[in-house]
């Protein structure tokens, strides 16, 4: 990319020589304008940006030093090289104070000046490259933090209110967004996915990671602002930011879903199903929208490759909704190890089925089958069964069998949970205590919920649920709170710089740390330090 240089000198022959003699094209520059004094140069700088200014010191109307002062006051980013026939150190010192990059004496040694320009522009391009990388890093950090927050919103673990201190800086934009919501799911009852059941935990994690990467890369290639959130093993929620000025276009979103399914099939060799929410979802409706799509996909008698939910034409009967509500309560109770609620919901489900006529039972059988599959997936996440027990249950589900058999599987699963509930509760308490120690030891570096879950041997979704139940706040809320509290202590009790403290509590980028800290405390780090450090703390590197 070619930059622009502005030549400022009251002697026309000098600007003409500079235009002709200096190899501007080789230096990646073009002469964008010339001026006879500082006033003319300011007018040109206000009209268009320049990357470099070559400026004489002694000029009429406005001299070079006055021009440089105005340039810096206006915050222009251009580099400046001064030209002068005066060897007075006072001029050099003033030029340095105003941030001039170099100072060349007249008569101009053109070879030397060419080298100076090359060095200045190389330094400028290096700074621009670093700035771009920092912005990209900051943007990715905000994207990752936003994905973690969006996961908590989807799972109904947190609310996006004005008092939620987690929404800091650029993340506040989440509150104003609306999204196209697409759920991608693996049909675990399909012949094509039987290999998935045989894979080890490590293989499944690699596979899930590969799918996430394919989805993110495809969305990024198409220029979408997006989030890809893995809900559990084999299920993802894709959120694509929608332009508020554009109406909901189902055909367009259907095309996006097809594009994503094709990308996963081509790159990961697996076939998924997609459920689309039938309207844009604002943030405060994301959890409900996700549940409606998941419910539709689970209760659909016939799985379509791409379907829209809720199905307003087909509607949902009272029996359908009652069955779904019982299913959700039962799975929730099983995951919590609440045996009394499990027993009550099992009785309720049995009564619902007993009260149906033959035609209704025929319609509910595939729904019940989907429910059992869903229950099996959740238990797999929790690690309830041994490999042999799990294989036996999967083989049962592969066969076509009746309502009583399905209920028998549900009973077997829930009893297995009940038998292990006491041990499981103790194990969960140990896992959460271990997780807390792990997090507290590693606050200084970037931490993900996936890494913490792996450390204690749990799936990400089950870890997130246990963490919220144990500490009454989400993983990201806990980690951020601990980091902020540690930063407050270090600001009050140490002489370390804000940048150093930011790194020691896990923020590679100072600006992002400052945004989070201000949202948490109401003060920027420097002001907080001024208010809380003891008077005898001495000078501080801020």
UniProtKB/TrEMBL annotation:
> Which Gene Ontology molecular function entries are recorded, alphabetically?
DNA-binding transcription factor activity; sequence-specific DNA binding
Q: Per the database record, which ranges form the Response regulatory domain?
A: 4-121
Keywords annotated in UniProt: DNA-binding, Phosphoprotein, Transcription, Transcription regulation
**Which residues does the UniProt record annotate as the domain HTH araC/xylS-type?**
433-531
InterPro entries registered for this protein in UniProt = CheY-like_superfamily, Homeodomain-like_sf, HTH_AraC, Sig_transdc_resp-reg_receiver, Tscrpt_reg_AraC-type_HTH
Q: Which domain of life is it from?
A: Bacteria
Enumerate the Gene Ontology biological process terms: phosphorelay signal transduction system
Residues modified as 4-aspartylphosphate: 56
| PANTHER family for this protein | ARAC-FAMILY TRANSCRIPTIONAL REGULATOR, HTH-TYPE TRANSCRIPTIONAL REGULATOR EXSA
Q: Which named protein is this? A: AraC family transcriptional regulator
**Organism in which the protein naturally occurs:** Paenibacillus radicis
